[in-house]
Amino acid sequence: MHRYRTHTCGELRKENIDEAVRISGWVHSVRDHGGIIFIDLRDHYGLTQIVIDPSQPFHKGVEHWRAESTICFTGKVVARIPEAVNPKLATGEIEIVAEEMEMLGEAKVLPFQVAKEEECNETLRLEYRFLDLRRESLHNNIILRSKVIARIRELMVAEGFMEMQTPILTSSSPEGARDYLVPSRVHPGKFYALPQAPQQFKQLLMTSGFDRYFQIAPCFRDEDARADRSPGEFYQLDMEMAFATQDDVFEVNEHVLHKIFTEFSDKQVDDIPFKRLPFKEVMEKYGTDKPDLRNPLIMQDATELFRDCDFKAFAGVVDSGGVVKTIAAKGCAGKSRKFFDDMVKFAQSVGSKGLGYLRWNDGEIQSPIAKFLSEETLGQLKELGGVGDGDVMFFIADKLKPTTEIGAAVRDELGKRLGLIDPDVFKFCWIVDFPMYELDDDGKVEFSHNPFSMPQGGMDDLLNKDPLEILAFQYDIVCNGTELSSGAVRNHNPELMIKAFGIAGYDESVVETKFPALHRAFQYGAPPHAGIAPGIDRIIMLLADEPNIREVISFPMNQKAQDLLMNAPGHVEHHQLRDLHLKVHLPKKVEKEIEDQSEPEGGTTD
RNA sequence: GGGGGUGUAGCUCAAUUGGUUAGAGCGCCAGCCUGUCACGCUGGAGGUUGCGAGUUCGAGUCUCGUCACUCUCGCCA
Fold first, then answer.
1. Could you tell me where the DSSP H helices lie in A5-135?
2. What residues contact residue A501 under an 8 Å CB cut-off, 6+ apart?
């Protein structure tokens, strides 16, 4: 018989009755009836009920066994009497009558309960992550993650991709997020950087003649956390294809994502091909480049209808170059006064001066602004929104940018409050035709996304078009309002690349020094190539229906990028710093904190 | 760095307008119980209300400061 188990805790069935077995696992619960004692023993695979008869010599100590201790039981599988069958358990038709038991690992009193799915303080969960990971929902999320990644690998290989590794210790990339730096021992004063993405390496692999590359790639960025953004590190399904167009990338991703989302969720997934929406259009309709298409509401422009109207607040905005946007919401005119007041408050909370609305309710217009509008204007608005009795139109007026942002927030909020968002579907779309350039805060032309993207009109556009009009072969894939990834057809032509950088104010030497590898590689016959890198953590979040990314990561950091279990980041020994030629120069505040902390220990002696 | 939220027993939460000795469930400890499966029953221990000031006859509650966590803006080519 195996030292620890002949079966797992999820395995035994009626067919095993009368077998002598041994199983090991964690004490999930103890039910002590004075005489007979029941124990639910749990492992990765399931729960099995152990029965301990008073005649057993180890019966006495059982009442002191704590939940979450690990124990090995040897005994016989028996059928439960019909009334005692537990249909909620896969193993519910049998139980094991224990004949021998061995305590493998005793548990102290728990900081929180494992057998119960109860909300629990985040700090405590992270400090005791190994316990947290035993809890059913988190455990299942991590299992889901493993299965999804395994399936992604299968599907990518089936699509003709090769998984390849790229360096973790590499050079700092000059643009983008803050890097994590690793000091070099051999080269005093020099640093490696952890890759923000394997971007340049995968492009180099394409110039090296590999045709389809992918990698479940760790990426490191020293930026602040969000609910859907883990600080420090995350994983991407990084991929790149040679001699490929934008459509080729879309096709592969549609195959893979559609299969993954269909196979690992019961929600209804959009048919492929997914919708393709130009950036300009989504900004106008949804106010964001990651629209949640489950929400049917759209924004429409009503600027001209308010020009010179008697509603001075809006007319004034239009006069000074602003815009008026409207969102038509069908069938909600009967909502309470409080609903509309709350929506106004909400709009104000996201930076709006107010929120206008027209309610066509029971044949009359209820609205704070209707009295300022002519019959004709009201008619035109009705037509614009396609509304009638029982419907409402909301209005936001401001400069274009704030109007767009407020409109997006109001659209989201209305979608939620009116229950318009179907929780049981996955709505995908590609956002295409991103602009190549935009103006930065100082009014200077800057790359709006990836500087390596191919301009759609090639050299012709770069030479002849207003930079702000140039579109790039740059795209995003969005699901239910979550941006899964950006991607692009890359600019593989050195001349085009230099020209593209030139428009943003960088001369060739900048390209050469900042991106020496690509600059060199593209001069020796680079293939046209394109790629994308969907975020693994976000895919799992969507599949697991988790609002927070920590729920799909085994050992996440907290919001301040600390690992509370491993105590990272931590202080290091002086000799380590010396080896690395480093001296730390701390902010005064931190220096004082360290002094204050060390004083009680170092300052007094008994 | 800015804004919002939270902080009360080991855990999850309650505590009327500022008013008696700060409560409950789970967990923990002790006892009872031979068919439960969130077992049940009885009893018990457990609190610097994050921390520090202030207002007040009186503060878990109000004010200020501070710390921690979290959400968010900035940031994330």
1. 122-127, 129-132
2. A451, A507, A508, A510, A511
Give the model's pLDDT for residue A515: 87
Residue pointed to by tokens 């993954």: A260
Domain boundaries A139-278+428-552, CATH class? alpha beta
* CATH 2.40.50.140 domain range(s) in chain A: 14-105
Residues 6+ apart with CB under 8 A from A408: A286, A287, A288, A299
Contact A398, A317 (CB under 8 A): yes
pLDDT at A441 exceeding the cut of 80: no
- Please give the ipTM for the structure prediction: 0.91
Whole-angstrom distance, CA of residue A107 vs CA of residue A65: 8
Residue A41 phi, psi dihedral angles, 5° rounding: -100, 130
Query: What nucleotides of chain B have any atom within 7 angstroms of a protein Cβ?
Result: 1, 10-13, 26-30, 32-40, 68-77
User: Is strand B within 7 Å of residue A451 (CB)?
Assistant: yes
Chain A 534-563 residues in 7 Å CB range of strand B: 548, 550, 558-560, 562
Six-digit token pair at A163?
């998984």
In CATH terms, the fold of domain A14-105 is OB fold (Dihydrolipoamide Acetyltransferase, E2P) (2.40.50)
pLDDT digits (tens, 9 = 90+) for A335-358: 888 888 888 888 888 888 888 899
